[in-house]
Amino acid sequence: MISGRSDKRKEQYDVPLELPSTFSFSQSSLQSYVNCPRRFWLAYVEQLTWPALEVAPYDEHEQQLRRGAQFHQLVERAEAGLPRELLRQGLDYPLDEWFESYLRHRPADLPSENVEVERVLSVPLAVDAGRSRLAARYDLIAFGGDDENRRVVILDWKTNQRATRRSFLQQRMQTLVYPFVLVEASAGLPWGPVSPEQVEMRYWFTVAPTEPVTFHYSSDLHAANRAKLEKILNEILRGERQADFPKVADTEENRRRFCSYCVYRSRCDRGIGAGSLEEFDEAEFPDSGLEDALDFTLEEIQELVF
Ligand code: SF4
After folding, report:
1. Cα–ligand 1 centroid distance for 246 (angstroms)
2. Is the Cβ atom of 38 under 6 angstroms away from ligand 1?
3. Which fold has domain 7-303?
C-alpha cells in the first residue's frame, strides 16, 4: 500500500511494501520493475543509495546527462517564444548543433492551436482503492483541429548517442504510459477530451532529426494498456517483502543489459565494473541518474480527480 514510511524501516532490507505517500508510478519506475523487480524494490521501496557507478566513464556520462537537460531547457525556451538569436548565444558543441537541428527539423506537421511544454499529468488507476496514481512528464504536447479533426501529438526529444530502434521503443513503458495518461487526463484539460485515435506519440532524436519514430494510438491499444498497467500495479502492490521482488534471471545477456548498468550489482553479486557508455541506451534504464527520476513533486503534478 501507499503510505508514510519511517527512516528506521528505510534502513532495513526486509520490510513490508510501503511507498512514500507522495509516490506516483511513472514510466521510469514501471520500466525498472519490468526490467528487474528487485531493482524496483531497492530503488523505489527502500530508496537505497549504493556507492557504485551506473555507467563508465562516469564524467562523460554525467556530461551527457547535463547536455540532455540543457537541450530540453533550450527547447522549452524556444517553444515559449524566446528569440532564437538570444538562445544561440554561448552554446558549445554539440548543443549548438542540436539546437540548429531542432530549429531546422522541428516536425512541420505539429498542431499549433495549443502547445504545452514540460507538462506533468497524473491520473488515478483502478487498483489499491484508487490510491495509486500514474504520472507522466511530457516534453511537448501539441493539440489542434476541430471536433472532427482533432489531433494531439506527444513529442519526446531524445539526445542519446544513437537513435533507438522502433521495435525497441515499441516495448518501452514510455510508449505505453504517455498516451494512456494523456487520454485519461484529457477530460480535465481545457482542450480535452481526446479519444485514443486522435493521439500519436513521436520520438525525435538529435542524432537523426529527420527520422522521428511515430506510434499511432487506438482504443484497442488503450484498453490493452489499461489491462497491462493494472496487472503490473496489482503485482507490485501484492508484494510485501524483498523476496516478492526477485532479481532478473542470472543470464549473460541480463548481466550485460541490466546488471552492468545498475548500481546494485555488487549487492546482488552480479559483477563489479560499470557497463560502458559506448553501449549504453538510456531507453533501457530511463531512471539512470536516479536521483532526478525517482519521483514527481506534488507541485509538478496536475491533480486530476474523476
Ligand atoms: S544488479 Fe541486476 S539483479 Fe540486482 S537489482 Fe540490478 S538489475 Fe536487478
Report:
1. 9
2. yes
3. Lambda Exonuclease; Chain A (3.90.320)
